[in-house]
Design goal:
GO terms for molecular function: NAD binding; oxidoreductase activity, acting on NAD(P)H; quinone binding. It holds the Pfam family Complex1_49kDa. Keywords: Oxidoreductase. This is NADH dehydrogenase (Quinone). The strands form three sheets. A four-stranded antiparallel beta sheet has the order 1-2-3-4, with no helix packed on it. A three-stranded antiparallel beta sheet has the order 7-8-9. Strands 5-6 form a two-stranded antiparallel ribbon. With about 400 residues, the chain is an alpha+beta fold. It has two domains: about 30 residues, no CATH class; about 325 residues, Cytochrome-c3 Hydrogenase, chain B (Orthogonal Bundle), CATH 1.10.645.10. It starts with 9 loop residues before the first strand and ends with a helix. Strand 3 and strand 4 form a beta hairpin. The protein is about 45% helix and about 15% strand.
């Protein structure tokens, strides 16, 4: 077992059991509880309580709530439009997907149909957000094994997309640019040119270079193939979502299954893998970059003329609606209730990272301690949507 003092772990003795002298001379058997996080560089703002026997993981218990912000409750004190500020803060890595889901839900209750152009702009922004998020997911996965170069490459590509978001909205991350009724801003030629520049760089520079070095990489395969396997049947049973679910061979994607925005008019593939291990989940992220590029190109080519928003009323009729969207990390559900007032009466969100987190206790049994970070990173979770 690696020297845990060098890895930033603290530990306590959880259970001590005396054994007989016949067991190869061992005097004691110890079951240790390790605290992986809250300040571990790979855990993020959460703790995993890990029980080990030697270097074999016996049990794991996620301890969450360190970035709990009451986002769903705070929305009840906002207007229908202003609530978008809270909704986009679910996760900074892909806030376009959550803004789109909330906006579609509010529009369903209000009985409003938005212009076709708004749907195309939403699609371009959502796929831009998905690419940004996937880039960080790829860099983090390799980074957790101690290799920092992929994250630096990913950040260079990410900057180009953030540049386009800044041109569109004036902000690089928290853009508040998708609202009930459409989108906030008319897309300018400068924004479209910058978005094309970003996807050209991704397609011609980042993807081929990254694929050559960090996809068909023997060391990376050795560390991640066969690690944290979730068979198809178990993935369905435990409710996995998004790339983690598709890596187990389930072709589930809300963009295809229940199209929204402009997805129903565009051609793209749902990426799946059959192995269900950490390497498969990593490869799904990478190949989905290519599909997002295809979607953005088609949406830009087919961008209709006309209005980009309609007026959303201050008050909407009483009612409720539930909408799913395919966020970067998977199916994100919004249940929104109106009592006829100027803002949401109640919002409940079903977040994919929260669902995927609870797969860990099931898939971690019997793995080596060194595999915990690999499995954790491959599940591609965001602490913001776990805690909300």
């Amino acid at each position: 077992m690696a020297d845990i003092s060098q890895l930033g772990f603290s530990f306590v003795v959880e259970e001590r059991k005396e054994v007989s002298g016949k067991d190869l001379g061992l005097l004691q058997e110890k079951l240790l509880q390790l605290n992986w996080g809250v300040q571990h560089p790979a855990s993020g703002p959460m703790r995993l309580k890990v029980w080990i026997d030697g270097d074999e993981v016996v049990k794991i218990d996620p301890d969450i709530g360190y970035v709990f912000r009451l986002l769903e409750k705070l929305v009840e004190y906002r207007s229908w439009i202003n609530a978008i500020v809270n909704v986009e803060r679910i996760c900074f890595m892909d806030d376009f997907g959550t803004m789109t889901g909330y906006s579609i839900t509010a529009e369903k209750i209000a009985g409003i149909e938005i212009p076709k152009k708004a749907n195309y702009i939403r699609t371009i922004l959502c796929e831009g957000g998905r690419i940004v998020s996937h880039l960080l997911g790829l860099g983090s996965f390799v980074g957790i094994m101690g290799v920092n170069t992929p994250m630096q490459w990913a950040l260079i590509a990410r900057e180009k997309f953030l540049d386009s978001f800044e041109i569109y909205s004036g902000q690089r991350i928290a853009t508040s640019s998708i609202v009930p009724g459409g989108v906030r801003y008319e897309p300018t030629k400068k924004f479209i040119d910058k978005m094309l520049e970003a996807i050209n760089y991704l397609e011609k520079e980042f993807i081929p270079r990254y694929e050559e070095v960090f996809i068909d990489n023997p060391t990376l395969k050795m560390r991640s193939k066969g690690v944290g396997v979730i068979p198809k049947e178990k993935a369905i049973k435990i409710g996995l979502a998004g790339p983690a679910l598709r890596a187990s061979g389930i072709a589930s994607d809300i963009r295809k299954d229940y199209p929204y925005a402009a997805y129903g008019e565009l051609d793209f593939n749902v990426v799946t893998k059959k192995d269900g291990d950490s390497y498969a989940r990593y490869c799904v992220l990478f190949e989905e970059l290519k599909e997002s590029v295809k979607i953005i190109r088609q949406a830009i080519d087919g961008l209709p003329e006309g209005e980009y928003k309609v007026r959303f009323p201050i008050k909407i009729p009483p009612g409720e609606a539930y909408v799913n969207v395919e966020w970067a990390r998977g199916c994100f559900g919004f249940h929104l209730v109106s009592d006829g007032g100027t803002g949401p009466y109640r919002l409940k969100m079903r977040a994919p990272s929260f669902a995927n987190l609870w797969a860990m206790p099931e898939m971690i049994k019997g793995v080596k301690l060194a595999d915990v970070p690999v499995i954790f990173a491959s599940l591609y979770m965001c602490h913001g949507d776990i805690d909300r």
